[in-house]
Amino acid sequence: MNIPVELKYTKDHEWVKIEGTIATIGITDYAQGELGDVVYVEIETLDETLDNEEVFGTIEAVKTVSDLFMPVSGKVIEVNESIEGSPESINQDPYGKWLIKVEMSNEVDSSSLLSAQEYEDLIA
After folding, report:
1. Can you list the domains of the chain with their CATH numbers?
2. What phi, psi does 89 have (nearest 5°)?
3. Residue closest to 63 by CA, chosen among 36, 27, 45, 91
4. Closest Cα to residue 26, out of 77, 84, 82, 69?
């Protein structure tokens, strides 16, 4: 199981890469493995400001449909359009295929984000 140490994680199996005030968000290797073959991603929150833990979209796999939760508060400034045409690419490269970029509205409350070790302990 791949869990890059430079990223932060949520209990809902999203990963977060923070660069300045921009957070790039995707789903973890564990999440894509549990979901199975991803067939559709729906994100209709572009330009919306959402709070931490609000739903920003859904991901549909052969087995199930799951909500995607905001790991930080902020405005959705970009949606990865490449996943619309090939959602299965998330299964092949979950850390390379980000879902959204968020301009964070405040300092990150890192108490709600997990380190790679903490995330590994959660899913073990």
Report:
1. 8-105 (2.40.50.100)
2. -65, -20
3. 36
4. 69
Angstrom distance (rounded) from CA 71 to CA 40: 21
What is the 3-class SS of 12-70, one letter each residue?
CCEEEEEECCEEEEEECHHHHHHHCCEEEEECCCCCCEECCCCEEEEEEECCCEEEEEC
Specify which residues 95 forms β-bridges with. Answer: none
- pLDDT over 70 at 21, yes or no: yes
Question: Which tokens hold the place of 37?
Answer: 């073959």
Over residues 63-115, the pLDDT tens digits come to 899 999 999 999 999 999 999 899 999 999 999 999 999 999 877 666 789 99
Radius of gyration in angstroms for the set of CA atoms belonging to the chain, rounded to a whole number: 13
**Hunting for tokens 């899913």 — which residue is that?**
123
Tokens linked to 45 = 């929150």
Can you give the pTM of this predicted structure?
A: 0.94
